[in-house]
Amino acid sequence: MVGLRERRCRRGGLEPAGAPERGAHAPVAPTRDRAVRRLALLVVLAVAAADLLPLGLVLKQAFTPERESFAWPPTWLPRTLTLENVRALREAVEIEGGLGLSVLVAALTVAATLVIALPAAWAAARRRHVDRGLDGALVLARLFPTIALAIPLAALSIRLGLYNSPVGTGLWLAHTLLALPVGFLVLRGGFRSVPVELEEAARLDGASAAGAFWRVSLPLVGPSLAAASMLVFLVSWDEFGFSLLLQVTNRPLPPLVYYLTAFGSPGLASAVAALMLVPAVGVLLVLEPALRAGVFAGSGR
Known about the structure:
This protein has 13 helices and two strands; from the N terminus they run E-E-H-H-H-H-H-H-H-H-H-H-H-H-H. The protein is mainly alpha-helical.
């Protein structure tokens, strides 16, 4: 036959001449694949261990007696579990107020950031000249250290009467400025993945520009919206510099961790840090289905 060389097998059958001989080089590829998989697994475990080790130490310090936290040589696993630090925390600081203020500021930051970032990201994805201007401005704003921006914002908030607000008005405005580049970049990637032809088809069917955005593009960027919400929440939830300078007595949780550590109460500080994990993990679990749908890869593909 043309284009196919054949040769006889021992049983008298025919097989293509280009087929590899049985047994020749067969064990090499599986052995190499197993070695690559084991190496990849070791790398993943090493990265996970390095990432989770500080978290484990914080939890251990929060739920063990102080003598165990400062033991030498260190004990990596808790020997005695106790809620002593959690009980002492309520007597040492106003933890309920700090927790409520942190949740309120983070929620307002997410809402304000999305309200601003959604139309800006859509316009940047559809108009190149808008994209260049916004991209440059937002990236430039993120080049400054947070503490450098916090000082003039603290002076401005004093003038505006927003300093040390019981509801954190000045703080959530500052967090919105801080988180806006994050939300914008994530949402812009989502809108870029939505074909513009879908919006044009909606316009031909009589939809306005706002209607095409609301009914066509916005539902398709759901995963990016979930990712932006989670990242913006974490930006506000973990932020320290603005929280320290703008809220002197009405403190959210991150400054409380700092003050308790600075005043020699690492067990109480670790208890606050452990408490901070709960809402953050809750937000992650709520948004997890949308994140699995394709967070950073963009939606609509």
